[in-house]
Amino acid sequence: MTTDPLVERYLNYLRVEGGLSRNTIEAYRRDLGKFQQYLDREDTPSVSGLTADSLRGFLAVLKASRLSSPSSSRCLSAVRGWLRFLRQEQIIAHNPALNMVTGQRGVRLPKTLSRRDVAALLDLAEQPQLEDHRDRAMMELLYATGLRVSELVSVEAAQVDLAVGYLRVTGKGSKQRLVPMGETARRLLRRYVEEVRPCLLKRKLSRYLFVSRRGRPLTRQAFWKTLKLRAERAGITRAISPHMLRHSFATHLLEGGADLRSVQALLGHANIATTQIYTHVERARLKAVHSRYFPRRAR
């Protein structure tokens, strides 16, 4: 199916003006593609003929296809953004989604690790292999900085300042930010850079910080596999992912009293609303504590 030129125009706007990543752009393309297929089936001649009923019909189709509630909401959000753009560009006379009321999207809380599980994961007994020292430094750095795993494996050696203890990270939309790494992560990273990385590279050259014995940067998949193996060694029985360390970083900072704006800057969120999800995690935790320990529990 050929993408609608107006959709391509909107995607180009998001790419240039919004600075969104390629993966995010492709997600928008898929969601808007679903809407385009629906309009083709309904024989809607042009976007100028769209009404609120058209959007409600599309939402009904999404529900009938057994698409999850978050996926349906994301898809509808993409359509809303596209229509808002078309109205701003004066391509359509009115936005049919402007006063449309839909079901409230539920809050999906991020999965986190407890402080005890994080400590068990990071404090594993050292093994003699070079890769073990590298992996330990990566785990510590991931938790200490809240990086995305894609950011972690893409870090270049030149982006690390061990003297000051900062890391220059290139995040979504090619936006850069400075992130402090903490003393433990800096100590392990210094050891890796000075003693382990040269042995892994031997005489090879690489601009990337974390490398394999072949001198190539580690992949996200390789790190995910390493994380799972280390979690098993640490006695963590629940399913674990790299993003859980990022979620844990943010949640533990807020629990410790950090302000939301600082956490937003550390995570590299463009919108503070994205960061606010972690306040829901803290409220959920407090509610669980209250339910467990308050003496007037339901009988």
| Shape, per Cα inertia axes | elongated
CATH architecture name of the largest domain: Orthogonal Bundle
The domain tally reads 2
Largest sheet: 3 strands, antiparallel
In words, what does this structure look like?
- By secondary structure, the chain is mainly α.
- It has two domains: 84 residues, DNA polymerase, domain 1 (Orthogonal Bundle); 175 residues, Intergrase catalytic core (hpI Integrase, Chain A, Orthogonal Bundle).
- It contains 13 helices and three strands.
- A three-stranded antiparallel beta sheet has the order 1-2-3.
- The longest helix has 20 residues.
- The mean pLDDT is 84.
Which short descriptors sum up this protein?
299 residues, mainly alpha, DNA polymerase, domain 1, hpI Integrase, Chain A, 3-stranded antiparallel beta sheet, 3 strands, 4% strand
Task: Quickly describe the structure.
With 299 residues, the chain is mainly alpha-helical. It is built from 13 helices and three strands, in the order H-H-H-H-H-H-H-E-E-E-H-H-H-H-H-H.
Protein topology:
Blueprint: H1 5-16, H2 22-41, H3 52-64, H4 69-88, H5 115-122, H6 130-145, H7 149-154, E1 160-161, E2 166-170, E3 176-180, H8 183-201, H9 220-233, H10 242-255, H11 260-267, H12 272-275, H13 277-293
Antiparallel strand pairs: 1-2, 2-3
Helix pairs in contact: 1-2, 2-4, 6-8, 6-10, 10-13
